[in-house]
Amino acid sequence: MSQEIGQCDDIAIIGAGIAGTYAAWRLRQQNKRISIYEYSNRVGGRMYTVQFPAIPDINVELGGMRYLRRSHALLHETIQQLGLPIKRFDLGSGPSPDTIVNVRGVHLRYDELGGNKTPYRLRPNERKPIDQLTWEVFRNYTDVLTTNVPETDKKFYVRDRSGVVMYKRSVQSLYHKYLSAEAQNYIRETNGFSTLSTEDSASLAVQTSSPPTESEDVLTVVTGFSSIPNELLRRFLRDGQRHSIKHNHDLKAIKKRRDGYYNLIFEPTISNSRTSQSKSTIKKCAKKVILAVNRLSLEKLDWQGLYQPRIREYITKAVKDIPAAKLYFSYDSPWWRRSPVYSDYLISDTPLRQTYDFGTSILNPSKSVLQAMYTDTDVSYWEELFNRAYGNETSGDFVNGKELDEVTKRYLSDIYKIPIRTIPRPTNAAVIVWKNYPYGGAWQTWMPGYIWPTVERQMTKPSLSDDVFVVSNAFNSRSFSDWGNGALQAVELAMPYFGLRRIE
Fold first, then answer.
1. Of 491, 329, 495, which is closest to residue 396 (Cα–Cα)?
2. Is the predicted pLDDT of residue 455 greater than 80, yes or no?
3. Can you list the positions of beta strands (E) in 341-452?
4. Which residues have a Cβ under 8 Å from the Cβ of 141 and sit 6 or more positions away?
5. Contact 210/135 with Cβ under 8 angstroms?
6. Spatial CA neighbour of 76 closest among 484, 501, 493, 500
């Protein structure tokens, strides 16, 4: 029997990550009955902050950990409105001249790449820093500098010398055509992330403008990135007696009723489990629905609006989930600072890929944190090790982590040039793999062949006859879709449907 309309939500928001909590915060003063339904017992989604025992002053960021002040203006302004304290993220958003790169057994500083120490058989015209080399591929072999269209649309008109429209080809095919195999290896292995070097990524994911001449401020939240969605939620709940959040609800289906409302079919979940635990179904109803979820959740959701051929194509083919993994260790001393090749940030061709010195505790100076690994694209190696050490848990006291410790120690010894026997055993560990349902990958990359603004517009309201909206940064076209700012921009696209002015 259907629920009475008076028992239905005016707006049901699915997902309590930053998109869902931001949507709730934006709608909080509309005098509506609004409920957030969250898969887990945790708020934040891919913003996930923890602290190690005895080190409460160092945020271990298993998800998002930084943002750019100018490029992510909407996120910055929101953090300011929430009154959350910010500070510089000293590790930056990428390599600096001081960054150590360890590839093919050679250690060199990032600003030495392209020089005589670079261990790649590069052609004379390829012996350049990465940013310069990738930009010159566009500058020399496409019409990016002469395309006479507005800057915002230029990328979709850029062609290479053979006349191929660039948005229809992958970055790897572009590099394959104009760079040697060694140069392609050089780009892939000395970049912190390998995402943009794959056959799947559209070539326009690579810069279509010259590298910036000055670096942008990189900031973080003093209280941890999780505090952004948590504070959004707190204010949403405070500002409406009929506002609520319901944890451990896994949305399986949306069914439209004859009265125009929607029945929402949930299965209950058990926290800390990677799969929903079906006991029975829970039925709720709503007048309007906001899907603040990742691409993978949309792919698995049973709702007729997502089965329209064009929408289905966008969900399954326009963007691709990029898995990522992180591994943090705490130690009783920052042993890595004894390294003859020490840097706050290291890039390697080992499975560790990126390693960050996350700092020493001020409250407990005998404790330090190392982000031993941060990698993307292929995470199966780490996924297996994590499962063997921790099962489904994302953090632990290292009771079962001996194999993980030994494997990681071997790579750390190599990249820091410190004897393996002198590296101590960690006191704690925190691990994560962003790959599985419901979160999917850590971010998405655009696939070749799609006009991004068109996909974004149609995905915001997939069905013209339904009041169901998608607010996922997976389909954001106006800034980096793999950052939190993209989620807020996706929410703003839906706000006019709720009578609110869109904030740019």
1. 329
2. yes
3. 345-348, 354-360, 368-376, 395-396, 428-434, 443-446
4. 160, 161, 174, 177, 178
5. yes
6. 484
Give the pLDDT band (50/70/90) at residue 397. very low
Cα dihedral across residues 450, 454, 456, 460: positive or negative: negative
Tokens of 190: 């000395």
Return the pLDDT at 210: 67
d(CA 189, CA 101) in angstroms, rounded, equals 9
Q: Tell me the helix, strand and coil percentages in the chain, rounded to 5.
A: 30, 25, 45
Phi, psi dihedrals of residue 495, rounded to the nearest 5° = -60, -35
> Domains of the chain, with CATH numbers?
5-47+226-320+447-498 (3.50.50.60), 49-65+324-434 (3.90.660.10), 100-205 (no CATH)
Tokens 């609800």, located at residue: 249
Distance CA(449)–CA(109), nearest Å, equals 37
The length of the chain in residues reads 504
32/290 Cα distance (integer angstroms)? 14
- Contact predicate 369/392, CB 8 Å: no
Residue-wise over 305-329: b if at least 16 C-beta within 10 A, else e?
Answer: bbeeeebeebbeebbbbbbbbbbbb
Asked if 255 contacts 235 with a C-beta cutoff of 8 angstroms, the reply is no
Cβ atoms < 10 Å from Cβ of 236: 25
Smallest Cα–Cα separation from 122: which of 104, 146, 138, 97?
A: 104
**Torsion over CA: 164, 169, 170, 176 (sign):** negative
Per-residue pLDDT tens over the stretch 16-31: 999 999 999 999 999 9
DSSP string, 149-189: S-HHHHTTT-BBTT--BGGGSBHHHHHHHHS-HHHHHHHHH
Q: Is residue 324 within 8 Å of 434, Cβ to Cβ?
A: yes
3-state secondary structure of 256: strand
pLDDT of the residue at 396: 43
Helices (H) and strands (E) in the chain, counts: 13, 22
**What is the spatial distance between Cα 198 and Cα 173, in angstroms, rounded to a whole number?**
9
Residue with tokens 């120690």: 409
Burial of 146 (0-12, 13-18, 19+ CB in 10 A): exposed
